[in-house]
Amino acid sequence: MPPYGEITAYLSVHRGAEEAAYRTLSYVEGVSFARRAHAPAHFGVGLRDTVCPPSGAYAAFNRYAERTAGDPAKVLHAYPFNGHEGGDAVHVRRQLEWLASLLGD
Which among 54, 57, 63, 105 has most CB atoms closer than 10 A? Predict the structure, then answer.
């Protein structure tokens, strides 16, 4: 159920609070932060994630750094058969290799 089920449960008893709830969520929602980012980024997404829908990772990736000058390096790895754990150790290895390439080994 968490985290999105909690929003539904809240709104089911606080009818009319939808606008305020979405306004509050805009302060903690990853896509909003992604738009203002300016550092290189390495994303991973498990396409069977039942905690954080994969669409959120893709939205953050697609909007990443759109409000900043420049075009920071960004990469996304999708793991079709993984859930919230993403690519697990494979993804950690990819992250470390990517970081090493940015730092010049």
Answer: 57
Gap between the Cα atoms of 43 and 99, Å rounded: 12
SS (H, E, C) 52-103: CCHHHHHHHHHHCCCCCCCCCCEEEEEECCCCCCCCHHHHHHHHHHHHHHHH
User: What whole-number distance in Å separates Cα of residue 31 and Cα of residue 37?
Assistant: 10
Alpha carbon distance 23, 19 (integer Å): 6
Q: In 10 A of CB 56, how many CB atoms?
A: 16
Q: Is the pTM of this model over 0.70?
A: yes
Reference 3, options 30, 32, 43, 33; nearest CA is 30
